[in-house]
What we know:
Number of strands: 14
Radius of gyration: 20 Å
Largest sheet: 6 strands, mixed
Oligomer: single chain
Amino acid sequence: MNTKILSQTGRHTFLIAGKHGSLVDTIMLAQANESTGTISLVSIPRDLFFNGRKINSFYMHYGLKEFVRKLEELTGLKIEAYALVDMYAFIDLVDQLGGIDIHLDQAVIDPTYKTVDDGVEGTMYFAEGDHHLNGVQALRLARSRHTSSDFARSARQQKIIRSLQNRIKEVGVSNPSLLANLIKIALSKLETNVSLQDALSYYLKYKDFGIAEKAVLSTANILEYNYQVVGIDEEIFDKECQTKIAQLREAGVYQAGSKLPTACSYVLLPKDNDWDAFRSYLRGRF
């Protein structure tokens, strides 16, 4: 696939990604538009299937630079800067900022997400309304998906990014030297191509830009689910996989997470496998 990579005048695209161990489970593009003074966020699902792999697996197998290169090929956009944060570094960053404020339009309840707070065991629950979250709480909200979906989780992650921007701006106004030190510490814990000088420059340039939670690419818009076969005997597994999927669809009971043969791997693809339409749709979200 020979994709033209666009570098748009007055627009700068950044990658914000999160990982747990070697698994990347958050992929978000942020594009700063200098003419409108806004930063738009678009979340890309980790199950998007591209060039024979789920997009998030490129990091695990080939490293961060190749992961970024594949995202550029996939989107057709030039990624100017990138940052990959581990979940533990994320906790520390939020705590060093003194926590973040976030509003939830509806309650987030996940009885499968076990929690321990002050020695008391429980499960994850956030009521509808306003919350001040520490690092652990923010991570819980960013990672939970079992009672919602990857798409709903991505939307919450965009809210968290906007809350982080607001908190960083507050700290920068009240204590610029503290902010510079926090950025230095944060960069030491990230996989990134951004230097301290770059980070301070981006902060000064974009701190007053509004963040728009633009889009989560999903089956509600440009994507559709499918299955790819992973196994030794692909022909046998593929027949078993496709037969089961057809039965579920015919019965009208299919949903992501339905019990399927072990060899079936849930993936997402552009509708009608049209990557040009996918790229056009994505760029229209910015």
